[in-house]
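Blinded run. Sample ID left blank on purpose so nobody reads anything into the name before looking at the predicted structure. Input follows.
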Amino acid sequence: MFTGIVAAVGKITQVQPLEGGLDAGVRLSVDAGGLPLADVALGDSIALNGACMTVIEKTDTAFKVDVSRESLNCTVGLDGLNEVNLEKALTLAERLGGHLVSGHVDGLGVVRKFEPVGESWELVIEAPVGLAKYLAFKGSIVVNGVSLTVNRVNDIGGSGDALVSQFSINLIPHTIAVTTLKHLQVGSQVNLEVDLIARYVERMLSASSK
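Blinded prediction complete.
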């Protein structure tokens, strides 16, 4: 589990295809940036842009993870020499500064607006079909591994599970400074994870109606 509070911005320094042809994944070498790795053991989890990955090798300043083809197909930012938001797995001794995050990407959103508003920035993202029902005013959403609060939801078409929605987020200067969200542009794809509690509530309601 994670909190969505980014601890450091790292960088993928090498992308090595795994054996197995086109269906195989890749091995990523990641410069950990300012993320301390002294307490990280092999087999521990680190979230890269919101996707939970398992450490298979490490040094004092870098680590490696294997990313499956399935993970590559449903995420962005894990297949090139990109900066990535990093967070180590949550321990029971830490403050829950964001919200409960599983590190499992639910879908890819598309940035529709990213503009300064005063000293902050407004980020508007169009959610993929199927995720609109999990978005709520003042609810939580994870964007590229960052726990954020939804300021506004605008349903723009469709209905039911085919509903298309855009949601707006306010990014304070600190969030811009310490995450990779500063690099977003209109048209950029982003990894989204919906609120864990909302997902269980939806399941319970749908099961009880059958």
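Unblinding after everyone has recorded impressions. The domain at 107-208 is CATH 2.40.30.20 (Elongation Factor Tu (Ef-tu); domain 3).
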